[in-house]
Amino acid sequence: MTTRTSHVDTFARDRLPPPQWQPEFLFELPELQFPDRLNCATELLDRWVAQGQGERLCLQAPGGVRWTYADLQDRANRIAHVLVREMGLVPGNRVLLRAPNNPMMAACWFAVMKAGGIAVATMPLLRAKELGQIIDKAQVSHALCDAALAAELQLAAAQHPVLREIRYFHEETPQGLEAAMARQSPSFDNVHTAADDICLIAFTSGTTGVPKGTMHFHRDVMAVCACWPRHVLKARADDVFIGSPPLAFTFGLGGLLLFPMSIGACSVLLDKASPPMLLEAIPRFGATVLFTAPTSYRAMAAQAGQLRIGAPRGGSLRKCVSAGEALPVATRALWKEHTGIEMIDGIGSTEMLHIFISADEAHARPGATGTVVPGYQACVLDDEGRPVPPGTLGRLAVKGPTGCRYLADERQRQYVQHGWNLTGDAYIVDEDGYFHYQSRTDDLIVSAGYNIAAVEVEDCLLQHPAVAECGVIGVPDEQRGQIVKAFVVLREGHVPSQAMVRELQDFAKRTVAPYKYPRAIEFREQLPRTETGKLQQFKLRSV
Ligand code: 3UK
Fold it and tell me: Is residue 16 a contact partner of residue 215, using CB atoms and an 8 Å limit?
């Protein structure tokens, strides 16, 4: 059986990896049986209005913005008309989206889905050069952009004529998107996309090389809603979601838009979501489900305790999700101490779209990411691709209803081998099926013949009261091959000194196997991080 594509422009479809380079896909669960024709906007947005629930609150934002599902549908429909009638979009065209997290960004995302386009959301901090690489790689023809972020896009557009139609929103001019929306009808017949029509290309927050575009289908969007949120997060229709990851990062797209909407809940979109801003917004909006990165939890913990934001302490917050990088044992403990909440850790990736290994509050084990999410399979493989027994270090391999499809990229064959998606992470699985993160496969530290996982040393140092943040890498050493080096940001009231170095080294030797202690320690004011909160170890290595 073949499903006919709705795409008139088949650029992306033509650049799917050949079948033999694609991962194996699994659809065993009853909730993963999808019809041939599926548009994720119909399922996530229009369905609620059709069921008479259009007046439910959907999106909130600072400044008193409150949109119901009907409001969001009205906006998305009008924008879909603008795309088709005024900007000449045909199904399959790529539409660049660029905005801080806000309701108009969400409306634009759904407009692209409705019109059968392919959304290419971009991180707010990207500069013209990086935007240009994305425009070029995905042959982006259309863009919808928040006027606040216009400058870099204009620079990029000038260099890339393939991008021929741009509209700006939050701009009070006759040429602006809102003026165009006012001319259009608030009803729109969604394009009857095939379940396997590509609807988004998410670029990896990669650290080196040309960015990789990962392609996902309408079906994939619905599949991630059916797996982790339903089986692990278990949020309710009356929950209020909030968090920091950009909607251009699939962690944020799922956590702050797709997942709340899949259950008729509401989400708070913050254009800025630094730790102090989150701390202020959570009680103000009565937020109940939080998505952010480990460092953000760590920075918020003490104040979160004083403000009593956790439901066990009388506040609103009841579920806290951490992803993007490994959750240190010390951070989990600190958050629990101050809020009473056991965090939900989960590993996901842009290639897999969302989380595939995780544990809910009741099943969390400090130091482990969790167990495989229903709908997925995971194992740990050796260098030859054979499964290793429990307790042995190896490469994490996963398959499920979603998987890696790079847009015209040779690196497909690195991520996908023998039908498995290889995330590039070194893991150990224990006898109970819990997966323990060790390092990225390319940065395991090998010192004097010992395998040392940077996270374990980081976890240890973070337990010391003087340490605010730290990052650990291996640096070349003549005698030992590599030695462990820690970069440490001290908490206020502590100063770098030789005595502090010795203090931290002694502390490490008392806490973990002594051969793991950091032989070198360097103090920093701050650590290099990506916009998605990941420590940039390569930057620590380069200086
Ligand atoms: C690392 C983790 C340990 C790991 C992401 C949730 O982070 C996301 O996607 P990216 O493509 O990076 C993927 C890589 O990040 N990682 C993420 N979460 C964890 N390592 N513990 C974790 N809990 O190296 C992975 O391969 O930026 C996370 C949902 C959607 C996402 N895109």
Answer: yes
